[in-house]
Amino acid sequence: MTTVNNYINGEIVPPSTNEYLDIINPSDSTTLGKVAISNSTDVNAAVTAANNAFPKWSNMTVKSRAALMLKFHALVRKNANELSKLIVLENGKNMTEALADVAKGNETVEYACSLPQLMQGKIDRVSSEVTCRDRRDPLGVVVSIVPFNFPFMVPHWTLPIALVTGNTIVLKPSEKVPLTMWKVIELFEEAGFPKGVVNIVNGTKEAVESLIDHPLVKAVTFVGSSPVAKLVSDRCHSLNKRCTALGGAKNHLIALPDCDVKPTANDVVVSYAGCAGQRCMAASVLLIVGDKEGTQQKAILESVIDKAASIEPGTDSGKMGAVIDEQSYKKIISYIEQSEKEGAKILLDGRSWSSQQSGGNWIGPTIILHENKNDKAMKEEIFGPVLSVHFVNTWQEAIAIENNNPFGNAAAIYTSNGGHAEWFMKRVRASVSHSLSYTCLYDFF
Ligand code: NAD
User: Fold this and answer.
1) Which of 145, 200, 205, 309 is the most exposed place for a label (fewest CB within 10 A)?
2) 280 lines ligand 1 (CB under 6 A)
3) Is the minimum distance from the CB of 248 to ligand 1 under 6 angstroms?
4) Which of 58, 36, 27, 193 has its CA nearest to residue 135?
5) Is 51 among the domain residues?
6) What is the pTM of this model?
7) pLDDT tens-digit map of 340-379
8) Whole-angstrom Cα distance, residue 194 to residue 58?
9) Tally of domains in the chain
10) DSSP β-ladder status, 19-24 and 31-37
């Protein structure tokens, strides 16, 4: 049983509230430990520590900060297995997915190590005898607030870049998965990061609001659901603070009649059922273009169902893990039940999984066939292993459905014709959030 407190100025500090939440294993509902619930007093201590560390840290050369990050990168690789085991325990995803979580996060660390070459600034001759010097300066204390679904990767969209550019950090991990970053903090120490440069405050809403409101916090990065992203960005903007807030998703896949059936089906299932559908890039709606009684269209749907039905529950590689908690489980079930009420047909029903497992939040891959494109499950983020399928007669109809949904992280088109792919690429409106983390976050700091 681990007690996850706060990490402030290089010390482990219990929360002033003395309150904790249980950390629950999604696979079997056992308690793994407890995590601190912090308030404004704890936040003030962490932000003050980060602010005190800022002058010395920001005065170091970029290359000396990057050198520490390079050591950290090597330590992450060395500890990748241990970190991944923690991710499996607290998040419920399988081991291959957990290893990928660590490897993808470490890619941003690599990117940050190249910042000495990238952030040299430039000199523009803007008029005759007039030059402008473009220089990158750190902002100060940066706050990162992260979701449960990638316990290692998402915090590392912000931390390495903010740190190498000379900022100091207060991280607020998801209260559902605090163990991974609790281990990572040891690696920051081992790499030689000075005290106060990286701090962790655990908790929920109160911690987040206090962090945003703290006058010494200069910028906030948030990744999570859209309603909370809006709360965070509104609060930051009301205080004139820099903020980047990435929200939820509803990702559309469009299968054209000329697609190659087997690879299409494999890809659709890997996309919607990987990490039990708890990825902001997960497929959520499959639009099959053409006659629903057509041979090719029927083959696509049957292949997707066959592939999804072959998935087994578990956290070993190749299997599908449980969803994060009971609340999430109930939300996913409610979307399936609502779809039934709306007249949709459940082609593959994952609800049977919960009765086959002892404990945990298990729901198997589910496929719903919707006659009506306005069914709730077709439009809202479910964040579970549920695929909504809808037949459309034309490409234009498919594009209209994709374009009209208010979310948008990604869209994909399945076709064997490059011209068709090009046509869709120009018309889909989804954008890929991951490119944001690399390019925009560098511009952000
Ligand atoms: P969440 O919004 O519930 O929580 C995210 C963070 O906000 C957590 O640290 C949480 O403690 C905090 N929080 C929760 N409620 C709050 C409130 N009322 N006020 C202030 N802070 C609050 O998200 P989650 O369930 O942890 O993660 C899943 C969501 O994240 C999904 O919607 C998913 O699409 C999204 N996500 C998006 C991306 C992206 O790149 N766009 C990446 C990963 C996850």
Assistant:
1) 205
2) yes
3) yes
4) 58
5) yes
6) 0.95
7) 999 999 999 999 998 888 899 999 999 999 999 999 999 9
8) 12
9) 2
10) antiparallel
Answer for the pair 345, 368: CB distance below 8 angstroms, yes or no: yes
Structural domain includes residue 31: yes
**pLDDT tens-digit profile of 72-106?**
999 999 999 999 999 999 999 999 999 999 999 99
* Residues 276 and 316 grouped into a single domain: yes
Cβ contacts of residue 270 below 8 Å, gap of 6+? none
Instruction: Tell me, yes or no, whether 151 and 259 share the same domain.
Output: no
Question: Ligand 1 test: best mutation among 157, 170, 174, most atoms within 8 Å of CB?
Answer: 174
Distance 307 CA to ligand 1 centre (A): 30
In a mutational test of the pocket of ligand 1, which residue from 152, 212, 223 has the highest number of ligand atoms less than 8 Å from its CB?
223
Ligand 1: centre distance to CA 143 (Å):
15
Q: Is 228 in the pocket of ligand 1 (CB under 6 A)?
A: yes
Assess if residue 334 is contained within a domain. yes
- The answer to whether residues 54 and 141 touch, using CB atoms and an 8 Å cutoff, is yes
Residue among 146, 172, 225 to mutate when testing ligand 1 (max atoms within 8 A of CB): 225
Domain housing 203: 2-246
Distance 245 CA to ligand 1 centre (A): 10
State residue 435's pLDDT score.
Answer: 42
Number of C-beta neighbours around residue 352 at 10 A: 12
CA pair distance 351, 417, nearest whole angstrom:
38
Which residue, by CA, sits nearest to atom 22 of ligand 1?
Answer: 205
- For residue 173, give the CATH number of its domain: 3.40.605.10
Q: Do the beta carbons of residue 184 and residue 152 sit within 8 Å?
A: yes
| Residue 442 belongs to some domain of the structure | no
Ligand 1 pocket residue status of 225, Cβ below 6 Å: yes
Catalytic residues: 280
DSSP 193: P
Structure tokens at 116: 């000495």
